[in-house]
Design goal:
Number of strands of chain B: 0
Number of strands of chain A: 6
Oligomer: heterodimer
Distance between the termini of chain B: 9 Å
Largest interface: A-B, 45 and 58 residues
Largest sheet of chain B: none
CATH class of chain B: Mainly Alpha
Strand content of chain B: under 5%
Structural class of chain B: mainly alpha
Distance between the termini of chain A: 25 Å
Largest sheet of chain A: 2 strands, antiparallel
Number of domains of chain B: 1
CATH superfamily of chain B: MetI-like
Order of helices and strands of chain A: HHEEEEEEHHHHHHHHHH
CATH topology of chain B: MetI-like fold
Helix content of chain B: over 70%
Structural class of chain A: mainly alpha
Shape of chain A: elongated
Helix content of chain A: 55-70%
Radius of gyration of chain A: 25 Å
Shape of chain B: elongated
Number of helices of chain B: 14
Order of helices and strands of chain B: HHHHHHHHHHHHHH
Number of helices of chain A: 12
Chain lengths: 321, 314
């Protein structure tokens, strides 16, 4: 199970990193006659052609979103051209269909994953870093410093997380550029994520502080900062790695929720959250189920983390929203 | 126990006051205010009247003081968006959210504990299948579950696609009952799966304990062994996370309410924030914090009750 989770996670990471290679079309490219076009079926044989090919889709009725294959003009797939693994050549290849602007869903899921996954990873990294440092200081120093840090972790942990994220985001200007939103969400997520890490790190450091190797290090005159960074925190590295993994799904989801309600990335930026917003229209989704593709992507990444964590013997508690 | 309760209740009260006050202050300093909803053609006089009506022309400290003073008397100000007192508005929304959350908690507990007993005590194809489904469901957070369930509802017509009531309903209560299953299921599914995993692991662990072995040696039947001997000890794995589940349900219900158009606290907060409806924001956050801390307190009490070895809570 552990290998399954790891494989899935690596597969996801590699495919979003290789998005320019894997995506058959540019994520912003609009095909005006292919709004909500269904996934293009790839055909393998026909008289004369043996290589995989597609039939171009022709719009029959714009209002009913009806398309038909143009059987007269088969378009063979083009491999390894323009820096893409495969593309449609004369006809657009839409393996996961098209969205409301006629953009390639597959390309957008791949490019969107870059932002969604990077944001989750960077935020989780910041949260773990801050949590490890503050928790380590609290556990090592004790006294009033420990009091201040412990009280703030307790306070932050009992706040309704989703509401705080919403609140912090909503009091800032609503229309911001993609880069600003990225920095802002990282800061907000890290602010809410560090207390859990700090609490665990503090407990580990308090346990380690009594050990002989720490006594020995102190006896030879190692400075407190060095003692903390080189001796005590490495003892917590396994715990920190698990926490990093556990924070990922929470942050992927938080981005999706925020972007879904319009408090996240600007709508033209492809992220899994902004794409899900298209799926908000129930009656539309019933006819155009491929709009749920980003939901599948989110599901797969959360599943990968759960399989990975499950194997380390911890119950997959996803209770902290 | 009494001292513990008193201290926790005091802590809850401080938390509620602090979060509501910060919400008020944050909304006040946020760019844009509630006069935005008057539109671009409002005259300076109208804007000034509106600002003075909601005390936006006074210094922040004065505004907070007046709000806090009247909040002591359970007057939480007036909503600029809906033009009614905040109290009843928030209460109604919180009741809607509570229906969802309590329903989901019940479903999750029954399903999670029941299935967890099966997977924790048996081997074979069916428990294996349940285990797989459970890991899948844990990876489907409420935002996704509600979208998927809505999709199914729209495709099959089994459930109404969102909202809390239909326009053409003849009986209010049957109509409400029809609208309930979808959001409750969306909220309950990931929590149920988590409960199933926890219960399963805890039960499997208890079944290897010496006291269970001893009972088995006395010839106690397998069924009785699991249900009467091992399970009561293992159930605290569930009660231990009940407090956390309260937070998870509150956050999860936000997503569910937005997706399925359920008029609860999450939607109200969202609308209030969007309109910069300052007192409504504070009211929503106060109730959210109160509900959450009540849930956590209840979880701790439950834990103390389910494990007699914890004689007094801290």
């Amino acid at each position: 199970m552990r290998w399954g989770g790891l494989t899935l996670l690596v597969l996801l990471a590699v495919s979003v990193m290789a998005a320019p290679l894997l995506a058959p079309n540019a994520p912003e490219q609009r095909f005006g006659d292919l709004l909500y076009a269904p996934p293009t079926p790839v055909h393998l044989w026909n008289d004369g052609i043996t290589a995989p090919f597609i039939y171009p889709l022709r719009l029959v009725s714009r209002i009913e979103r009806r398309f038909e294959e143009d059987r007269q003009h088969p378009a063979p797939l083009v491999w390894f051209s323009n820096g893409r693994l495969v593309s449609g050549g004369e006809a657009p290849l839409l393996l996961l269909g098209a969205d409301s602007y006629g953009r390639d869903m597959l390309a957008r899921v791949l490019y969107g994953g870059r932002i969604s996954l990077t944001l989750a990873l960077v935020s989780a990294g910041c949260a773990v870093l801050a949590g490890a440092l503050l928790g380590g200081i609290a556990g090592y120093a004790g006294g009033w410093l420990d009091g201040v840090i412990s009280r703030s972790t307790e306070f932050l942990l009992v706040l309704p997380a989703m509401y705080v994220v919403l609140m912090l985001r909503a009091v800032l200007p609503l229309a911001l550029s993609g880069g600003t939103v990225f920095a802002l969400l990282t800061a907000i997520f890290a602010t809410l994520g560090w207390p859990i890490v700090a609490r665990g790190t503090r407990a580990i450091v308090i346990g380690e502080r009594q050990r002989e190797y720490v006594e020995a290090a102190r006896a030879v005159g190692v400075s407190p900062a060095r003692l903390l960074l080189r001796h005590l925190l490495p003892a917590a590295s396994g715990y920190l790695a698990t926490q990093l993994t556990l924070l990922l799904p929470a942050f992927i989801l938080a981005e999706a929720t925020l972007s879904y309600i319009g408090f996240g990335f600007p709508p033209e930026t492809a992220t899994w959250g902004t794409m899900l917003k298209d799926a908000a229209n129930v009656l539309l989704v019933a006819d155009v189920p491929w709009l749920l593709a980003p939901a599948v992507a989110i599901f797969l990444s959360v599943l990968a983390v759960n399989l990975l964590v499950q194997a380390t013997g911890r119950p997959p508690v996803q209770l902290e929203g | 126990m009494v001292r513990f309760l008193a201290r926790r209740l005091f802590f809850c009260a401080v938390l509620v006051v602090m979060t509501a006050s910060s919400a008020l202050l944050l909304t006040r300093v946020a760019p844009g205010d509630l006069t935005l909803s008057l539109g671009p053609f409002a005259t300076a006089r109208e804007i000034a009247a509106e600002r003075s009506r909601f005390a936006l022309d006074r210094p922040i400290a004065v505004q907070w003081g007046e709000w806090a003073g009247s909040a002591m008397r359970f007057d939480f100000g007036e909503s600029s968006l809906y033009r009614v007192p905040v109290g009843p508005l928030v209460f109604q929304a919180a009741a809607h959210t509570a229906v969802l959350a309590i329903g989901a908690l019940l479903v999750a507990t029954v399903a999670g504990v029941g299935l967890g007993i099966v997977t924790g005590s048996q081997r074979g194809a069916l428990p294996g299948l349940i285990r797989m489904a459970s890991i899948g469901a844990i990876s489907l957070p409420s935002l996704l579950t509600s979208l998927v369930l809505l999709f199914i509802a729209a495709r099959t017509g089994w459930f109404p696609t969102g909202g809390i009531s239909s326009v053409d309903a003849s009986n209010h209560w049957t109509d409400l009952a029809g609208h309930l299953p979808l959001p409750i299921l969306a909220l309950a599914l990931p929590v149920a799966a988590t409960f199933e995993r926890l219960q399963s692991a805890a039960l499997a662990e208890q079944l290897h304990q010496p006291f269970v072995m001893a009972a088995a040696a006395r010839g106690v039947s397998k069924r009785r062994l699991v249900l009467r001997h091992a399970w009561p000890v293992s159930v605290k794995a569930i009660t231990a996370v009940y407090g956390l589940a309260a937070g998870s349900l509150l956050s999860g219900s936000f997503a569910v309410e937005i997706v399925t158009a359920w008029p609860g606290l999450g939607r109200l907060t969202y609308d209030a924030l969007y309109a910069r409806d300052i007192y409504l924001v504070a009211g929503c956050v106060a109730v959210g914090a109160a509900v959450l801390s009540a849930g956590m307190l209840l979880g701790d009490v439950l834990l103390a009750l389910s494990d007699p070895r914890v004689p007094d809570v801290r």
